[in-house]
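Researcher: Here's the sequence for the chain we discussed earlier.
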Amino acid sequence: MDDDLLLCDDLEEQGSALDMAPWKILVVDDDPGIHEVTNLVLACRRFDERPVVLLHASSAAEAELVLSEHADVAMLLLDVVMESEMAGLLLVDRIRGQLNNRRTRIIIRTGQPGLLNEDDVLRRYDVNGYCLKTALTDAQLNRTCLLALRNYRDIRDACLALS
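Model: Thanks. This is the structure I predict for it:
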């Protein structure tokens, strides 16, 4: 495993509090083991010289609460099947529609791919990635997070430049 996987090549010094705050990743899954594994893989990572902090929710309702308390969540690692078969996808619709949050990158991480196939999910829902839990290695999880954090950073920076 490459320990520098979440280090960005561009290590410019950035002085604002926004640039020094940790990147927040919200793990939404009803399986405690998924939270534990994600902690093991991502807990000590950094991106752009900033640490990664993991927030946790075990249901879509808990995730909504966390998102209401943390407007700066960079990405979600989101299970589909939790309190209902579609809880995760319904949460995507609420995040993008009701909360009008288009910045946060959402990665579907499912253990039950038979319910909806990847193409359907990517076409029908405003998500930024789709992974099978059983096929997701540590290196793939790191790469997925690196790309999502990079996308979030670029969107955030573009929005700041416009204001």
